[in-house]
Amino acid sequence: MTQSSAAKFDASRAGEYAQQSRIALAGYDACHELSACMLSAALGEGKRARVLVVGAGGTAGEIIAAARLEPEWTFVAVDPSPPMLDLARTHLLEAGLSDRVELVPGTVADLDGSLPFDAAIMIGVLHHLPGDAAKQDILTQIAVRLRPGAPLIVAGNYRAYASEPLFMAAWAARWRMNGLAPEEVQSKMNRILQGAEPPRSEEAVQALLAEAGFEEPVRFFASLFWGAWLSRRIPSAE
């Protein structure tokens, strides 16, 4: 996530993030849990690993799930939004995991690339980056900080929202299911349309990953517009 795209995650947005993210994404916790399971399967059970977590601010759900599954993993978590990073710090402290996580304010480009990571997780970031160039850049920045063959979990919305009116109607219905009045639902949907720019398709996600030096990904989770994939850095990628 860039500094400009992080501006929308101010203190007020951070405060409501945990509740609203679980409404906006049906299966929010399942996605984090399956991401941890897929990463464990890719790395091997019980092995030590140093894991990069990109856009880690908020619930820190991906870190908590992975850390509980694999006690030998440590994490470097980067996020450009101070309020979101503070929220993650609180959740990690409550989970008793603070000593296994280094929280870094900033972007992936700010991280030292001399000590490569064994794996990376990036959940809910790509669709907040405007344009393909920014999406490509963050994936490339991740790739050069990974060991050859290291796995990457990437998850987020894909496909243009206007391309799936039935999904949009179902998304609105989910907000109604959680007690929002019609005018509140409309406000939420307007905010979704204005606040994000997903990759155009699953093929677009695959192309972005390939250009950054990753193998063809395997999708392991889907929920309306949301998808989650596992890929690996191509060993020959520079």
How is this fold's topology laid out?
Elements lengths: L2 H4 L4 H14 L3 H16 L5 E6 L6 H9 L3 E7 L2 H13 L6 E5 L13 E5 L7 H13 L7 E7 L7 H13 L4 H14 L6 H11 L5 E6 L2 E7 L6
Parallel strand pairs: 1-2, 1-4, 2-3, 4-5
Antiparallel strand pairs: 5-7, 6-7
Helix pairs in contact: 3-4, 6-9, 7-8
Key descriptive features of the protein:
9 helices, 238 residues, 7 strands, seven-stranded mixed beta sheet
What would you say about this model in short?
By secondary structure, the protein is an alpha/beta fold. It has helices spanning 3-6, 11-24, 28-43, 61-69, 82-94, 131-143, 165-177, 182-195, 202-212; strands at 49-54, 73-79, 101-105, 119-123, 151-157, 218-223, 226-232.
Overview of this structure, please?
The structure is a single chain. α6 (131-143) links the parallel β4 (119-123) and β5. The chain has helices at 3-6, 11-24, 28-43, 61-69, 82-94, 131-143, 165-177, 182-195, 202-212, and strands at residues 49-54, 73-79, 101-105, 119-123, 151-157, 218-223, 226-232. The chain is α/β, with parallel strands linked by helices. α6 packs across α9. The longest helix has 16 residues, at 28-43. The chain contains nine helices and seven strands, in the order αααβαβαββαβαααββ.
